[in-house]
Write a structure and sequence with these properties.
There is one protein chain. Helix 2 (12-38) packs antiparallel against helix 3, helix 3 packs parallel to helix 6 (127-158) and helix 5 runs antiparallel to helix 6. The protein contains 6 helices and no strands. By secondary structure, the chain is mainly α.
Length: 162
């Protein structure tokens, strides 16, 4: 059982992102079928599918970042000596920590402000939508901290990047 829990924890972002995408697709398909065959639509479908889309984007971005699958252009870095590459990569990690941390901080403020604003159809707090930013950038900030520690620890032991 602990293997399943460990696997779930390791892939939490991917599972959550998949849940939101699946929910969005099912709602949109059901709404289209209802409109086409019964001339009736679900009044809340667009808003819920938009919320699911926003959550899938920011949780998915964190999952991509976690696996270092984001786009990076390192042609110039690879042409420098190995010692300079290590310094540049550490500086980039620190810069990403500052950027992700700042966006996380700003998203917390934005979500606090939007807490009192209801959504158009369901009337739930806009913080439901905006908290996806807090969640996504919070995880990216934590992943960046993990990258800094892992990269420096592994470099000291093996001389290779994690």
């Amino acid at each position: 059982m602990s293997k399943k829990i460990e696997l779930f924890a390791r892939n939490f972002e991917e599972i959550l992102c998949g849940f939101f995408i699946l929910t969005m697709v099912l709602i949109v398909i059901c709404n289209v079928l209802l409109r086409y065959f019964f001339n009736h639509s679900i009044f809340w479908a667009e808003e819920v599918s938009t919320i699911c889309f926003v959550w899938s984007v920011f949780v998915g971005a964190s999952a991509v970042y976690k696996h270092r699958m984001d786009i990076g252009i390192d042609v110039l870095v690879n042409k420098t000596p190995v010692k300079i590459q290590k310094v540049i990569r550490t500086l980039v990690d620190i810069l990403l920590l500052v950027i992700n941390g700042y966006i996380f901080y700003m998203s917390v403020i934005f979500t606090k402000i939007s807490y009192v604003k209801p959504t158009a159809v369901l009337g739930v707090s806009s913080a439901v939508v905006n908290s996806a930013l807090v969640f996504g950038f919070g995880l990216m900030t934590l992943h960046t901290i993990r990258f800094i520690f892992l990269d420096n620890f592994i470099r000291q032991k093996t001389g290779k990047r994690a």
